[in-house]
Protein 1
Amino acid sequence: MRMRSNEKSGKGMSNGRAVNGFLLDITGVLYNSIYKSDGVAIAKSAEAVDFLYKHSNVKFLSNAKGNSNRNVARRLQRLGINVREEDVITPAPVVAQYCREHKLRPHLFVREDVLQYFDGIDTSSPNCVVMGEVEEGFSFERINRAFRVLIDMPKPLLITMGNGKFFQRVDGPCIDVGAFAAALKFSTNCEVLNIGKPSRFYFEQGINALGMKPEEIVMVGDDLMSDVGGAQACGMRGIQVRTGKWRPDFEKLPVTPDLTADCLYDAVKLIADNGFRL
Amino acid sequence: MRMRSNEKSGKGMSNGRAVNGFLLDITGVLYNSIYKSDGVAIAKSAEAVDFLYKHSNVKFLSNAKGNSNRNVARRLQRLGINVREEDVITPAPVVAQYCREHKLRPHLFVREDVLQYFDGIDTSSPNCVVMGEVEEGFSFERINRAFRVLIDMPKPLLITMGNGKFFQRVDGPCIDVGAFAAALKFSTNCEVLNIGKPSRFYFEQGINALGMKPEEIVMVGDDLMSDVGGAQACGMRGIQVRTGKWRPDFEKLPVTPDLTADCLYDAVKLIADNGFRL
């Protein structure tokens, strides 16, 4: 791509509105996940990230719920994608902060690696359930424990780290935490609070981290409804990439991306070549 | 109870309509289940069953999905409750018959003990999922396999053995298969066909087994919505017992039983003493 930053781009030479910041989804945009391994980098995503660090502003807004921000960043670094830990946003620390601010005592149905964020939070006699577990740590016994906590509450509250229908692994699509939130809602009639995309509250974490107005930001994701539609609902522009969980039948869904590109690199190149306008 | 059969009861001496047959739920009515054990008989349910075999007509209509009819009957017999295998109705054989009649090729997400009912049914390139698995055989991997089968179908069909919110074990309530049907529906937008109470098709199995009109039959169950409400919707009378999963807050729910009794024995005694009328 041509190394032209937004500072250098003249207004007259390009169309569209200025793009001053990028929020990037991680899984399916930077890399594809493989069960119990680091996964594989998506072609040229490393170059795209380097370029954005150099010529624009970038944060990473993921619904990844299984690892700490440190381990998310380290995994990407092992794949050659130089994402800085401090630029990674995942639901677990946001949920923990929400629990602190709202004096919630969560029953934690989460991965071991994110338990650290809940240090110091009272988890005795829980008044909500926090769920962010799928794959190897998921079991009937664990969802049943969450069910029993909820069924005993007068006003059951389930906080879920993302509300996705499925996530994409290299071996195929996998049922995601949103399905198990629907399961618990079916059986307990709980309120479900999603702290993850596409909730506005969660997108605001990314907007605030970039420190700019939503209309200056583009969100790049592989999930049309959650990434693209969610970003648009918050006043950002939403870019669909044809990687990760993208499927041709997304075109039948009721969200129209501001841009569709084959991959992150292509999206960044197109915007940069247009003087950081879209 | 007074040993008075319906033949002996004079019309003038009692109120209500004739009761010529009983459909009994099993778990929570005859016995309470304990994880990985036979469970415990509910007081006097054995006497009530003996009495009904002697003085009326009785079949057992259960949503139990983990065991063959033979093993359901044997378990009850070990608890001293003399239920005959041929009088037990559970979803698995009914689902298998449905698959045969509709030329369905199921992906089987069921317990090992009920696989025998599907002998001879083609399960290659499945065009539906049959689900009847909770507790020890449930895993992320297995529900994910069911998810992948459904997500690949143009018109995904999930047949579920019962659609309950929870079942009751002695150690507490447990999230039931209805929740996981809701999960799969959330993620795949599948059609959900419940072959189990409260579906009319399933109640008809019990009605046909008794060989009488719905209005001659009472259904006795511990689940207000599924057993009692479901039976009433089919033209039977529905009796709620205060055993199993019964909870005081059932009174807030929008179904009114034709009779509420502390246990099966009390319900049978009251009806028998009233000349088999209710």
Protein 2
Amino acid sequence: MTTIKDVAKQANVSVATVSRVLNQKGYVSKQAERSVKNAIKSLNYKPNAVARSLYHKTSGIIGLFVPDISNPFFPELARAVEDAATSEGFTVVLCNTDSKQEKEEKYIQVLQQKYADGLIIATGTDSIEHILSTNIPVVALDRYISDHIPTVVSSNKAGAIDATEHLIAQGCQFIAHLRGPKGVTSADDRYTGFKQAIEDHSIAHVVVEAGFEIGQSEVATRNLFEKYPSIDGIFAGSDVTAAGAMRAAYQCKRAVPKDVKIIGFDGISLGEMLTPSLSTIQQPIYEMGQQAAKLLMMMIEKKELPSYWHEFSTTLKIRETSTGSE
Amino acid sequence: MTTIKDVAKQANVSVATVSRVLNQKGYVSKQAERSVKNAIKSLNYKPNAVARSLYHKTSGIIGLFVPDISNPFFPELARAVEDAATSEGFTVVLCNTDSKQEKEEKYIQVLQQKYADGLIIATGTDSIEHILSTNIPVVALDRYISDHIPTVVSSNKAGAIDATEHLIAQGCQFIAHLRGPKGVTSADDRYTGFKQAIEDHSIAHVVVEAGFEIGQSEVATRNLFEKYPSIDGIFAGSDVTAAGAMRAAYQCKRAVPKDVKIIGFDGISLGEMLTPSLSTIQQPIYEMGQQAAKLLMMMIEKKELPSYWHEFSTTLKIRETSTGSE
């Protein structure tokens, strides 16, 4: 492997001069700089990333915090972050935090020891002190942390209004909302949107907390069908929750969309895999992940951000679970 | 932040002595070692990971190569690898390669510059030269690369036999196999198992290539139903492919499982989200990911491996798509 000494020898300069050229620090004559660059090229020299990291206190590493990569919303975000980061020469360390503060703190410690350049945080914990006290750039993705941290979200409230009004336009008279966990900003905003649309139209409704998991949602929906047999529309707080509602409808022998129409929220690929295919509110997941990575890289390069609030519009995606008569 | 100098001062030894204790290299008296360790503890000193990396030429980083983290098989593997790695103090860099050789080569270059300690490769490319020529440990996960690389797979052929015999036991008389891409070892082994079981029972059958994606599988299955209306059983090469077959059955108004029984392969959480829920061949995905990480860490620590071939048994998971009469 070519070393910095080989480059110095070939360029006929000292190792210190090569180092100054590589790190763009200190005085180097134009002629010496040219010789060094030619030598680097002809020898195909690759500077040692770790040594550069020690000198610059940067590593080209960014940490991506997700609750659990096996929850199907996050792989699509992770892919987008990784694509954007890689194209700028950064590598992404995957951190499954299970939304636990102690795991987040441990990852922050380990990443800072490795001179990580920044963090993208798509997890929710009650405390935010440990995030605010990191001394590297942070971007919040799919959640709000603080006004001092750039935030990338979708228009959860407006999307929820669209979902609810779509069910009403399809003729639903009694609509259930399977809401996500209380305290999670996206779930709270979707709930607010649902309430607003429903009150505008004076439609019978019921709201239950169903988490963001399929099992909880399946049980909650079965209970709803038993208690309120006339429910004919369901707005699920996520696509995974919607899949649970579809399973409950199947078990209770209620045909979708004939007897009950269902719409989800997220727009993950799961929706297209379901039968019938799931109507949903599409978040631009890939664009959101890319934007978070871009903002983080701007902060790492100490560029000024145009804004700290980046809200992406959602779109109503009508598929089979909310239309037709079969 | 506490530095190595603070530790030396408190322990009343030289910085070089502290360094020898930290790196477990060179002679240090028992007494000096004790003083240094006490000083490290009382000052809560955390050695700079990057400086240690430069000295040891290791970084505590491992690379995980997946084709695309948004394909639902890989997040579950990634979670397992990350859990096992984190518990041993390693961090995992996520690498989406799209199974392209140039992307793999680029990642290998970047990771080696960062002194990555090893790679787990769950992607398939035609060439393997660039993998064989890396100078850090490699483990192959869900694929075979070479006899010289430890391999973690599931018993694809035996699982395919179980799937096919289950359809036959359920009374299927004409079975289609939606096979995965030719040349991908797991897909080839499942095909071989299917053929063996079908020939043992003299059952009418047809095999088509349907990739590992939902769109391709949906189209392939629709064509099959048109051409061979008496197909009453489908063994899909993956759970995602099975979801595509279920969508095709819905479009062609063939009830699952009454008119056609379907079984997948993988055992990802998608199967439980489908309606009806998907019968499948369960691979122990989490255990496989953990085993790959453990083998890699043994190699990094230069321990001898018990074996280079780690094949996990699959289990038949009977759910709704292959049983009952509704």
